[in-house]
Amino acid sequence: MSDEQGRTFRNAWIEGVKRHYPGGTPKPGYIAPWDETPEWERQAAAAVCRQVEDFLAASEGHAIRLNREQKGRFVALCWIAQIHRHFEAPKPGYVADWAELPEWQREVDADIFESIERRTGHGRP
Length: 125
Fold this sequence. Notes:
Elements: H1 3-20, H2 39-58, H3 68-86, H4 103-120
């Protein structure tokens, strides 16, 4: 997996957490820089970024019609698949369905999708 793709995902995650995390300082792991991110998480970030890129390319620009919730759901599902890939028995919170995620995390997932859209030229400026 591409280091650049992983960094794209991670940077969008950190920016989103800083923007949407409610009241106070987020957990240090939420905003840890790339170099301090565990290897499994780097691999997962790169994989999800690539999945979003592939989805955008396959839609031939029509993914721009998705609403924020649909964009966020796509990122969340791709992430859940990566959690299952890296952990035999993940904590329930790590594989929570969209409706069970806190609002701030849903917003961050949508931000990640939109950040990748902009970077690839498939989204709104």
